Give the backbone structure.
Amino acid sequence: MNILILHRIPYHKIDYHYGIDHAVHDVTYFGKPELLDTLPAGLRHQRVERPGIASSFEEAKTWLQQASLRFDRIISLSEYELLDAARLREWLGMPGASVEQVTLVRDKIRMKQAAACAGLRVPRFLPLVDFLAQQPSEGWQGATVLKPRSGASSEDVVVFATAGMACEAIAGLRSGVPRLDSPADKALARAAFEVEEFIAGPILHYDGLIAGGEILALTASRYVNTCLDYANGKPLASFHFPVTDAALAWVRRALDSVGIREGSFHLEAIDSDGELVFLEVGNRVGGADVVATFELATGIHLPSQELRILLGENGPLSHDPGHAGRGMWHGWFVVPGHHLGGGYHAGIGGIAVFRNSTAVLRWNELAIGTALPTGITYQAHEVPLAGVIATASADETRGWFESLFESITLAAPAPAEQSSDPSSRAEPQQVAR
């Protein structure tokens, strides 16, 4: 089989060779040079660099129009290039998820409409344009969330105390979102956003695999803090907890409502006093260390099995839907640095007792003197601190994270001139147990 991969995620996050036999299949990686450089030495493959000026779809189309090549599959596992891959497949008349199918799970308005039509509870919502046009007495009055219709990592998400405050701030170009407050085209910018009613409650996420519409494997997780908290500078964690029969049935309904039938999924919900409220879903693996903790809990490497499903090479899994656990309950954590305004990492306090904890399976501590990220990232090697732990119960895992978050203190970033001496830089702490 001749396979084209739109390569946007660093190779080590996917490890394509576990899911695709590169000795049997001819695999071409198409991406920017810095990402192609993450491909391992000795891997049998072809690499094609793209400029990275236009979209992956446009640049791949231009290349394919010039090259005499035929592909049997076009694959992307990146949230940001799923639609590009679908457009290429549609242009070439190839099998795989269509533009319509991918759009349904990329557009937060359309996915909530589909979930509501299937009888699932969703937050009340409106396209931003409609929200700004309605009368103040219409709709909901309480806390209101402004968010892009498509996107990830809670970028450009803002919560307002009331619907009226949201309307006034957005209409007055004071939302705090640059592309709404200083738009080149106001109508176009507003068309890319929605608002929804804020519903209080813990945020849960369900991760797993589906093939032919059948859920093959599933874990349930709960966040400590939220992705929006993380975007605003707070640490974030997630821990597994048991999957109930009711939750499994709800996940089936949610996936069916948006037409997710093949591959991996990352489904988020709000626990509103025991009732699940559909928030959003992606036909992809979750971020941060979702893949690592899923594999620790189930023995299944999500990206590899997803690739086998997409190639039609998946076999039966020795796993029942639910949490295998292996007697331990896993979770991941990540401490952000993007909110510190740049500069260089100057250290993190209050973590010694946690670094040496027997619960720690992986510990990634940024080297002092390393440049801090300027954009939101969950990559363990880019943030001040990240890791994976396992304890004897879900409650114990949650408690470990809560104690860590209460203890840590980030030193103020050092300016460049204080971090230019290599001898002053500590090596990163990386522990795997």
Confidence is low (pLDDT under 50) at residues 318-324, 418-428. The radius of gyration is 22 Å. The CA atoms of residues 120 and 253 lie 8 Å apart. Residues 124-197 form a domain with the Dna Ligase; domain 1 fold (CATH 3.30.1490).
